[in-house]
Amino acid sequence: MSLTREIGAVLDEVRREVAALHAELPRNELVVWTAGNVSARVPGRDLLVIKPSGVSYDDLTPETMVVCDLEGRLVEGERAPSSDTAAHAYVYAHLPEVGGVVHTHSTYATAWASRGEPIPCVLTMMADEFGGEIPIGPFALIGDDSIGQGIVETLQHHRSRAVLMQNHGPFTVGRTAKAAVKAAVLCEEVARTVHIARQLGEPLPIAQADVDRLYDRYQNAYGQR
Amino acid sequence: MSLTREIGAVLDEVRREVAALHAELPRNELVVWTAGNVSARVPGRDLLVIKPSGVSYDDLTPETMVVCDLEGRLVEGERAPSSDTAAHAYVYAHLPEVGGVVHTHSTYATAWASRGEPIPCVLTMMADEFGGEIPIGPFALIGDDSIGQGIVETLQHHRSRAVLMQNHGPFTVGRTAKAAVKAAVLCEEVARTVHIARQLGEPLPIAQADVDRLYDRYQNAYGQR
Amino acid sequence: MSLTREIGAVLDEVRREVAALHAELPRNELVVWTAGNVSARVPGRDLLVIKPSGVSYDDLTPETMVVCDLEGRLVEGERAPSSDTAAHAYVYAHLPEVGGVVHTHSTYATAWASRGEPIPCVLTMMADEFGGEIPIGPFALIGDDSIGQGIVETLQHHRSRAVLMQNHGPFTVGRTAKAAVKAAVLCEEVARTVHIARQLGEPLPIAQADVDRLYDRYQNAYGQR
Amino acid sequence: MSLTREIGAVLDEVRREVAALHAELPRNELVVWTAGNVSARVPGRDLLVIKPSGVSYDDLTPETMVVCDLEGRLVEGERAPSSDTAAHAYVYAHLPEVGGVVHTHSTYATAWASRGEPIPCVLTMMADEFGGEIPIGPFALIGDDSIGQGIVETLQHHRSRAVLMQNHGPFTVGRTAKAAVKAAVLCEEVARTVHIARQLGEPLPIAQADVDRLYDRYQNAYGQR
């Protein structure tokens, strides 16, 4: 089926953005084969744009992206949506400030997830971006709302824009899809660095007041205005 | 010697596919130097197409690929076939559902192989693709059917399409050569992730019933129809 | 505001150099996203050239580089300078022999930093470049001179041109910006190699007299005259 | 000074080969910055071709390669030879069957070297290429024949074409410079794989008779005739 012409231009732009952001996943070594996906909320509509299921990153174009509603049902597109669409859709339906969602099985983050162990906040880079630990979400099977519920409930109790779903892998969110991709990149980097730090001893803690100061500054003063 | 014209077009297609799939081995960091190979069964014939021995991945073209029978003897091609051809041939001769075979010495999978330790199924991605642990095959010397027998006997007792030959490295199979390459990529990724997980503790187990559900869904509902 | 024409040509050259050297950070896998920066002192002036804040490495051109004074205030450029500019500026103001500064969160160096543990000098390559251990600087919050002071005080007591700021990451210096980038690359490499060495036992020490001989030779006889 | 015309064509060919082989060092992630070098013996002459000191791999051309005698003295070329030239020259002077030498500080091999611990032969790939353990050479300072002597004395007591100089890094040899590069690539790969294997337990040994059989076959039957 086809959407009305008025939102056609907006959809084209979101398709282009989501297709381009998928290239960041292999470039930042967050995925192998087809095991990761990016989605974006369509502004002003209860719709999302996401990767089709099982398609190689090399073959992704704006045209191959699919449009779904916030219950994960296909609205526009010729291919089946990512099998993770239901989880993405649940996040958009329940967290209105979220404009983008990313899911990967990036190696180090998934290793923490498989032990069910949150990543402690022992790096200034981690305080900047995540404002504290990266938490663990529940074990949940694909096929219904379990994964989406686990993500939303975990994120609602943490500053972190990343959650490690147990035995599964990280989901990250952001105000935009690009911000969610950045969170996915930094999630893997802090997962790797803290893992390596702990291999030879215990990292030194950062006082909570200092974590708070770093997080506040980075969220409000970093980058170009 | 030269094969009859009727299968020439089919052979050309298989040569192209096998040559192209070899590029995935260095791209996915599964091999160094010339230490890995992909083969495909020629549809409807007791033949396989495989890499020539000791040739750099950069120098592989469809024309350099060689054709062997299912006892590993050269049928067409100007170069000696891969020294692993006998193992590939044995697999095709004994597992009729297999259309592709891949052998590498990918780092983490080979590390598990050198300890003779199967990789436990503690990741949803691993349940999806392998349906359980990735098993160990026996120590076997190159030169006769020992490696092929070890692969076939081990795979017959497991869902896994990957086997880690002791002190040697992984062999993977698939209905197509591309599926076998995918299994090789995911085998190394789960070998790496579970290794890293175990460096700092014990991964949480996934209940067998959940492994079964994940495997069933992924084998039957994932990707494009 | 705009600087007088006489130093325009010099500034253009420094902008080109600093922009080009930023490409070495992702190329040598020292950074993810925008998390690292290079600066250079403007010869004969109390000025430095540095990366703008939060801009992708792909988007850096000589024109986007910004010029600041040695208190970290913007002198020329349309964008906000890197949020690490105050630390760079403090180093130039207090260490007159320094012509370049690099800051990254490179993985292994940051892991040592998070434990507050200096890297012991157990490699000839490390004796050559750093002349001894790579020391730890204090934990310091961004926002005033604390980081700059910590860098300067630590470097003044060591031969090393690298310092690992606790829970934060490495800063390196050099007579030129290129030399500071080289130090950043070698800092991460020795952090990685010594980490890996210590995972399976204790590296053998190098006698101090041998460290001294290696350092002296490398600083005075290596490379082209 | 300039050599007679008769060997000019041979030298040009060796320069091209050595320049091209240097590209394999960064491509196979064996080096950072300028920290590695390849040399080749000039056939029929007591000469070698090697990399100039401290020059970036990107700037290496056949013309920049330098020619030295077997005492390491510059014979032709406008730049200072690699500071490791004396070690290369000593190897050619004392091991007449060697046609190529490679030196790197590749990460995992150097980690074993810093502990002074030989790499045990627990992989079939390692038995194939090295025929047994990769041994440790003595700690030796640069500046005289100590490094060359340590390499030669160690290699004379082992099948291995790689030696790990203590606290320093690997040197590899081969009948050709390309074979020495292959040995450097495989040395790092087995150093990495056996390191990873030992992180989670003890690799299973391979019986000496099997190591012998694998080595004999690979040295005599592998590749194209």
From TrEMBL, chains A, B, C, D:
Which intervals hold domain Class II aldolase/adducin N-terminal?
A: 16-195
Q: What domain of life does the native source organism fall in?
A: Bacteria
This protein's record includes keyword Metal-binding: yes
Keyword list, A-Z? Metal-binding, Zinc
- What's an example GO cellular component term for this entry? cytosol
- Name the UniProt record assigns to this protein: L-ribulose-5-phosphate 4-epimerase
What cofactor requirement does the entry state?
Answer: Zn(2+)
- State its Enzyme Commission number(s): 5.1.3.4
Catalytic reaction list: L-ribulose 5-phosphate = D-xylulose 5-phosphate
Which species?
Friedmanniella luteola
